[in-house]
Design goal:
With 188 residues, the protein is of the alpha+beta class. The longest helix has 19 residues. Helices cover 30% and strands 22% of the residues. The strands form 3 sheets. Strands 6-7-3-8 form a 4-stranded antiparallel beta sheet, with helices on both faces. A two-stranded antiparallel sheet has the order 1-2. A hairpin with a 2-residue loop joins β4 and β5. The protein is globular. It has one domain: Alpha-Beta Plaits, CATH 3.30.70. The chain has 4 helices and 8 strands; from the N terminus they run βββββαββααβα.
Length: 188
């Protein structure tokens, strides 16, 4: 593992060959810190949302209203007791259009090397990371008014959905997550 300024750092879980602003469907999972059950409980295969769980639901739906310029599509999602699953689609938009991507690829950096629009460290905007960051921040701000100790896990899991078959499998998984809660590996 590499060190940064004398401290070990966790390697990025993001695919270095992918631009997370590109038009694609993504499956995301976001957990609470220590997988604490803040969002409610599952009863008879149905999720019963707590006040904080209702905040998660409302903030997710607001995510799509707040970013009309990104051409987002809301896929299946579910709020579980200690985590959140969702499919989010980033559509073709002014930030990921072929013309913009070509302009980015044709640019040269200060050393005269060609640059591209692959996933890079640095400020993230108009991509999956910025969407998740805004969502988590909005939930945390509201949730801490209800319970000051609310915290998210620092990272999140994502998966680039590659085809319609995989999309259908993930949709089914999300839809059935409350019914399968007793066997869920995130239950703790």
């Amino acid at each position: 593992m590499d060190k940064f300024r004398g401290t070990y750092r966790i390697a990025s879980a993001r695919a270095p060959w992918w631009n997370y602003g590109d038009d694609a469907a993504y499956f995301i999972t976001i957990c609470t810190r220590d997988r604490e059950h803040f969002f409610g409980q599952v009863e008879r295969g149905q999720m019963i949302l707590s006040d904080i769980g209702k905040i998660v639901n409302e903030e997710w739906e607001k995510t799509f209203q707040m970013r009309p310029d990104m051409n987002l599509g809301m896929g299946e999602y579910v709020v579980m007791p200690n985590h959140f699953h969702a499919i989010i689609i980033i559509g073709r938009n002014e930030y990921n259009s072929p013309a913009l991507s070509k302009r980015k690829m044709d640019k040269e950096d200060d050393n005269g090397d060609r640059t591209d629009n692959m996933n890079r460290f640095g400020p993230q905007s108009k991509n999956l990371a910025s969407i998740v960051r805004g969502f988590k921040s909005g939930v945390a701000k509201q949730a801490r008014l209800v319970l000051p100790g609310f915290e998210w896990q620092s990272r999140y899991h994502d998966h680039i959905i590659r085809d319609s078959r995989e999309f259908a499998i993930i949709e089914n998984y999300i839809r059935n997550n409350p019914r399968n809660w007793d066997a869920d590996k995130l239950k703790l």
